[in-house]
Amino acid sequence: MNLKITNLKAGLPDKEILKGISLEVPSGEVHALMGPNGSGKSTLANVLAGHPQYEMTAGTIAMGNVDLTELEAHERARAGFFLAFQYPVEVPGITVGKFLKRAVELRRGEEGKFNVSGYITELRSAMDFMGMDQGFINRYLNEGFSGGEKKRMEILQMLMLNPNFAVLDETDSGLDIDALRIVAKGVNKLRGGKFGSLVITHYQRILDYVKPDKVHVMVEGHIVLSGGPDIVNELEARGYDWVKEMKK
Ligand code: ADP
Ligand code: MG
User: Which atom of ligand 1 is nearest to the CA of 39?
Assistant: First the structure.
């Protein structure tokens, strides 16, 4: 589905971080959001997901014909919004298998009449696809996972939940090239059809594997530049200083 953000202002109670963001990702497209550290990329991801720590003071967020603006985080997730976290949390006591089963059940609205054996088959094949050992099913969610394993786990969740729109917050950071390829493979699997995605990254590397339809650059809470994929090469060659200049 498409995601349409209109004049979004948000931040912490005492600090405005996003200063009027308008951005649209049409259904079926993958856009990249780039920008220097501290520009507000993760804040945007969190605000889109409905993180209660952040306060929205203006604007609207719509996914397809669903207005997300007033919805709670879990309602956005059920509607098919997915966020892959920059820093996935460890949840001791809950296994990967149980966590995903419950999440998938809620997302599909199949409470009570869930086909468990079908789910297990699906989970096993998604894990094979992500190059994850089946032993992860019985491990506690993210507990003791390496950085790369946590990021694969985020993408596994995404595949199982089959979202309408996914935001990936620096899922590429800290990954070696093999893990990066697998993460990209996961995104490319959902790509097309009605799935839309915003891939947040500081570096160009993941964009060699997930080719964005369009690129947006954020500086100090503003989108200062939007355009074709060529922007990525220009940022790689020239750094971020020249785009910082664009913010006056
Ligand atoms: P990016 O993801 O682009 O690196 P962030 O959205 O993480 O940027 O941060 C943008 C700015 O907002 C930074 O100055 C950061 O310190 C501040 N910020 C974001 N979230 C919080 C928070 N929960 N508490 C304090 N400051 C925050
Ligand atoms: Mg960030």
Answer: 3
Tokens representing 116?
């468990």
Domains and CATH numbers, the chain: 3-88+163-247 (3.40.50.300)
Lookup: tokens for 31? 């856009």
pLDDT digits (tens, 9 = 90+) for 190-240: 998 899 999 999 888 999 999 999 999 999 999 999 999 999 999 989 988
- 201 touches ligand 1 (CB under 6 Å): no
Q: Are 214 and 228 in contact (CB under 8 A)?
A: yes
Between 179 and 16, the more confident residue is: 16
Kindly state the tokens that stand for 8. 């979004």
Residues 16, 14: Cα–Cα separation, whole Å: 7
Cβ of 39 closer than 6 Å to ligand 1, yes or no, is: yes
Residues in the chain: 248
